[in-house]
Amino acid sequence: MPNYVKQLIAGGVAGGLSKTAVAPLERVKILYQIKHGNFQSMGVWRSLMCILKTEGPRGFYKGNGASVMRIVPYAALNFAAYEQYRHWILEGYPAAGTGPVVDLVAGSLAGGTAVLCTYPLDLARTRLAYQVKGLGNTLAQSAVLPAPYKGVADVCSRVIKERGIRGLYRGLCPTLYGILPYAGLKFFAYETLKSYLPGDTEPSIAGKLACGAAAGVFGQTVTYPLDVVRRQMQVQSENALVDAQFKGTLNGLSRIAQTQGWKQLFAGLGINYLKLVPSAAIGFAAYDSMKVWLRVPPRERRP
């Protein structure tokens, strides 16, 4: 089996495991970002209990099917593309060495590639996660979204009918603006921290978990406001939030700060840390462990 196929498999498995492990927290974070009902004032625990009471345990994973459908190919492409871009950079520019700049550039390019290929599934996941049974689908501005979606296919078909193919990529710009530095910083931080772990052999699982968690927190903190803009753009439609349409990423950042307060740009950041630490840790550790299990040749260690 070619190494790039093994890397795709390792990345897909890592992405699916990490995303499913934190799905309940991811759902609450999305509800915070979009200012759904009174979720922001409830706090994490009460929000989780509200979802449990109104929708049962399955409510914690509402939209997770779309999320996994997206994250498996996304993570597979992200990790495999990172390895490939890194290889091309080192092959084309050997003077670059194996330092952190290579990880930063390769990670950014890989993140952008993965987003472009899987973005419609992310939009579908957000719209599905936004719907809370029994509480309606009304935002703080009292605008009402269309009838509940029945699944990923229903979201995509209705968005295409409403806004055309371009509608499936609404919010793509802030996503790219955020993912390019985020993915690059995440790989840069992970590989840098991992290089300081003791021993010449493969680092321990605990070491990988710690490095992955730190890398995820570092990258996300820098780019979080763009994620808030992306989520709000994803639930906008011709039938809702007509007066709140954003003309672009910078306009979205400005409008949210002016109309909702600058704190809204960091809405859900606390809960994002709660889910990001285990998610990033599991993702990186699972990827490296899967590569060992699949017998992917190790990369050269930094001098």
Automatic annotation (TrEMBL):
Keyword Membrane assigned: yes
Reaction(s) this enzyme catalyzes, per UniProt: ADP(in) + ATP(out) = ADP(out) + ATP(in)
Classification via PROSITE patterns: SOLCAR
Coarse class of the protein's main subcellular location: membrane
Membrane topology type: Multi-pass membrane protein
Keywords recorded for this protein, A-Z: Membrane, Repeat, Transmembrane, Transmembrane helix, Transport
Sequence ranges of the Solcar repeats: 2-88, 98-196, 203-293
Record-stated family: Belongs to the mitochondrial carrier (TC 2.A.29) family.
Protein name, as recorded: Mitochondrial carrier protein
Lineage per the UniProt record: Eukaryota, Viridiplantae, Streptophyta, Embryophyta, Bryophyta
